[in-house]
């Protein structure tokens, strides 16, 4: 693999790393389903303190997956990508297939 090709895969890996946490996946699901959410809504959704949720949001923002807009004292987050729902559907199919294989092995 040459340097240019490696850089492409490294950039992809950074996006996967940003998604590689259950709280961040849940945040992305929420932001994909709704136009935007304030950090207070996301904090309640995740069930963590605001600083933890803010760190998760920072990781997603740095990966280019979400955008933020400040209105007064409130920060509102929105997804900047529309392709994650297809990816999530693909992951669900893999999970279902894995479960079916595991059931077959137990029989």
TrEMBL record:
SUPFAM superfamilies noted in UniProt: Winged helix' DNA-binding domain (SSF46785)
UniProt xrefs under SMART domains: HTH_ARSR (SM00418)
Keyword Transcription (UniProt): yes
Keywords: DNA-binding, Transcription, Transcription regulation
HTH arsR-type domain location: 4-102
InterPro entries from the UniProt entry: ArsR-like_HTH (IPR011991), HTH_ArsR_DNA-bd_dom (IPR001845), HTH_MetalResp_TranReg (IPR051081), WH-like_DNA-bd_sf (IPR036388), WH_DNA-bd_sf (IPR036390)
Domain of life: Bacteria
MF (Gene Ontology): DNA binding; DNA-binding transcription factor activity
Protein name: Putative HTH-type transcriptional regulator
Organism (species): Novipirellula aureliae
């Amino acid at each position: 693999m040459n340097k240019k090709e490696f850089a492409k895969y490294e950039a992809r890996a950074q996006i996967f790393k940003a998604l590689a946490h259950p709280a961040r996946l849940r945040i992305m699901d929420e932001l994909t389903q709704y136009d935007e959410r304030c950090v207070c809504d996301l904090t309640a959704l995740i069930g963590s303190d605001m600083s933890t949720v803010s760190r998760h949001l920072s990781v997603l923002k740095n990966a280019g997956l979400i955008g933020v807009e400040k209105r007064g004292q409130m920060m509102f987050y929105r997804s900047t990508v529309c392709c994650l729902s297809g990816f999530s559907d693909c992951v669900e199919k893999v999970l279902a297939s894995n479960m079916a294989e595991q059931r077959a092995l137990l029989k």
